[in-house]
Amino acid sequence: MGRTDIPPSYGRFRNGWGVVHLSLLGFALLALIIWAASNGNGARLVSSWWATSMRIQSVVFNLIPFPWG
After folding, report:
1. For the chain, how big is the Rg over CA atoms in Å?
2. Three-class SS of residue 1?
3. pLDDT band at 2 (very low <50, low <70, confident <90, very high)
4. What is the largest CA-CA distance in the chain?
């Protein structure tokens, strides 16, 4: 069923790279969580994002004229 022209070391390489990749992603996620939890960084980021999205919403709302207004 399997392909015989692929060397066995390829499978080990793929598995090894998968472990390294998942480890890197895990450390990056952990660093992000630690950063967001310290000094209110996460709260400031969410607050900034919310304010920016509300400004964009206001601009778009005011660009569209309503027929009854």
Report:
1. 24
2. coil
3. low
4. 73
Q: What is the spatial distance between Cα 33 and Cα 28, in angstroms, rounded to a whole number?
A: 9
pLDDT above 70: residue 52: yes
Mean pLDDT of 12-35: 97
Q: How far apart (Å, rounded) are the C-alpha atoms in residues 9 and 11?
A: 5
Among candidate residues 47, 51, 24, the one with its CA nearest the CA of residue 32? 24
DSSP 4-54: SSS-HHHHHHHHHHHHHHHHHHHHHHHHHHHHHHSTTHHHHHHHHHHHHHH
Distance CA 25, CA 20 (A): 9
Phi, psi torsion values for 56, nearest 5 degrees: -65, -45
Structure tokens at 22: 């998942």
CA 64 to chain centroid, in Å, comes to 32
